[in-house]
Amino acid sequence: MHLRELLAIENITDRDQSLRRAFSAYTEEIDITGCENIALTILLNFTYRKVQVDDLLDTKLAKTALHNEEFMNKCIDELQWFHTHNLKYPDIRVSKQNLVVNAPILHPYVLSSANYDRAYGWSHNSAQVNLVKLFGSYFYWQGEKYCLAEILASQPIKTAWKKAFQSLGMQVKLFINICGRVKGFLPQEMIPDTVDRYSPQVRMPYHDGYVAVTPVISHVLQCKIQQAAINKNGRFRQVEFTRSAAVSQLVASLGGAVNVLNYPLNFNNKFYGLHHSRLLKMRNEQTIFNTKVLTTAHFINALNGLIYNGKALALKQRRQQKVSSIKAVRKALSEWLSPVFEWRFSIIENKNQPFYLEQLADTLEYQLLTTLDNNLPELVNPLLGMLNSLLSNDASTQKYAFHPKLITPIKASLKWLLTNIATKDNAFASLDNEEQYRYLHLQDIRVFDAQALSNPYCAGTPSLTAVWGMMHSYQRKLNNALDTNVRFTSFSWFIKGYSNVPGKKLPEISLQGTKQKELRRPGLVDNKYCDLVFDLVIHIDGNEDDLLLIDGQPEMFKAHFPTTFAGGVMHQPELGLAIDWCKLYNDENKLFEKLKRLPLSGRWIMPTKYKFFDLEALLLILKNDPTLSPIMLGYLLLDKPKKRNGALENIHCYAEPAIGLVEYATAINIRLKGKKRFFSHGFWMLDAKEQFMLMKGV
Asked: 431-464 pLDDT, tens per residue?
């Protein structure tokens, strides 16, 4: 949008409202090329309180501000509080510090400020928030994104802007003076020498020890998320701040309502473990198949992709679209069949056929439950007929029933599912006790009030680094107790239950004030919390003697089980469940047999290999695949670790949280893909380098 379009609005109130919105950080930048004089007038009038301005195009009011030396000095003084990363977000008690650094390393599998050009934000004294708008508001000029401070600080001095200042009565000498002062105050790099006591710190491995990391939010990436939310390009929820102007100019412009990406676990917490419930459904002539999945947008898009595949321009594109569509169809069909499969698994594992199944003898469900493994592929045609019948009975899917371009790929997908569900995967042989690794399976672990904000950009599943941190603490406690040196190298995470915790937490009373002598309650900081129930599989490595030692003392794993996770409280399962919730395995076959029995309603948090180079590409991937979710994958370092006062460790650095993608994989899909795939692609480990610390798939 060009500024001229807004200037054409005749109603002054509507025009002013549109102009304020256009120059805000939460909207796409407006093009002002050719309208420098008017743009300068608008920016100068932004520095007044809203009630003082009747018309943002009032040149007389703008001249008053421009020729007020004291006033302009205050505007220029605020340049020193410009930042690239906001140290006051979310805790406004951090004071007299700002951070200006170059972007971190560009990584293809995560999103960060490295994917965008530098942009300045501001945070300081909330009373000065309007003064910042003169030099800190961004716009497009001659095809590039600028704020006025960057233009005036650049060399040579831009003629168009010199003329704009002259049009408001400023002499060239004074204009050059302002340019020099702006250049001197605008920070190019600024890193605090001390760590504020209110700045968060996390310990991360670095070389042979640890480094204290302070996570900081990127201004430019936060702006991009707000712009996407305004355009409704994705799924978001809001984090509210009561003193918004004290947080930053961006948060103030949003009225304290900051948008974050919101892709939480969304699955049915109902477990299909009761046989009589299924039987009752069938007696009432209801299907036990998961028919809801057949009407989802993802499944319908996959069917369209198979039908209209020939319209893609290039052969490679057609192939990619076809493969992607077949995978999506196969995944949807596995969820459609999953309740029946789970019933079948429970019958097989109990090694007896319930007598009540005879009541279902004339049904396709009965055949799926009782047919021998080798004969299951023979049920492809009846299943295909049932599927097409279900599609024809719904208005949204009616046109896909018995479609000639769908028959073959759907039939092939059903055959693949029935074949693989029957296949005995013996890819891994049993391991002896002499093998130098083990697996620890933690079952039905409960967490209350865990941080659902995995980082300042994403709400939903807690951070993967939180899992790693809990696991690392567990390792240290166990080694100290047993005098061993075993290593918890990687983990696989299965979430059985997830629910958001409503409301806001009242902060605890603590010593506040400049001298920390006053007992006060800090201001409310809106956060997002969740309750979880999950299983965790931990890969344990070590020498033979240490592994044999932990084999002989399994109770030590229970005795030193951590009590915290992602800021929440962690507990073992309820006593009434009477399960062996903490068990050590040295045989992958036995472990996978246990994992195959996990409820099909749960989700595995699986690594992905998606590359994206901006937020728009990330949101497009999320739109096309609802099984994916953004999550905190770790940290990208913003400076070289060094000694700083106030740090928890000998060395400290500032780092930017990185956004990555995970897949919410169903238990049935993991079971179908087998042991080999699970143990080679289902685990997470920390990749700690000089410039980043990121979780990655093993």
From this structure: 444 457 899 999 999 999 999 999 999 999 999 9
| Phi and psi angles of residue 634, each rounded to the nearest 5 degrees, phi first | 145, -150
What is the pLDDT, as a whole number, of residue 53? 94
In angstroms, the CA 103 to CA 116 distance is 8
Q: Annotate 307-376 with three-state secondary structure.
A: HCHHHCCCHHHHHHHHHHHHHHHHHHHHHHHHHHHHHHHHHHHHCCCCHHHHHHCCCHHHHHHHCCHHHH
Domain ranges of the chain: 3-98+121-185, 275-422, 437-697
DSSP summary character for residue 377: G
* pLDDT higher at 352 or 559: 559
Q: At what angle do helices 588-595 and 667-681 cross, to 10 degrees?
A: 150
According to DSSP, the β-strands at 458-459 and 257-262 are parallel
Residue 615 makes CB contacts below 8 A (sequence gap 6+) with 111, 115, 221, 224, 225, 228
Positive or negative CA dihedral for 140, 142, 144, 149?
negative
CA distance 208 to 210: 7
Q: pTM of the full predicted structure? A: 0.87
Contact between 218 and 112 (Cβ < 8 Å): yes
Do residues 605 and 495 lie in contact, with contact meaning Cβ atoms separated by under 8 Å? yes
* β-bridge mates for residue 529, sequence order: 451, 501
Write out the two tokens for 267: 């699955």
Burial string for 39-68 (b: 16+ CB within 10 Å, else e) reads bbbbbbbbbbeeeebeebbbbebbbebbee
- How much is the CA Rg of the chain, to the nearest whole Å? 30
Looking at the chain, the number of H-run helices and the number of E-run strands are 24, 25
Which amino acid is it at 319? R
- Convert the pLDDT of each residue in 471-511 to its tens digit: 999 999 999 999 999 999 999 999 999 999 887 777 677 66
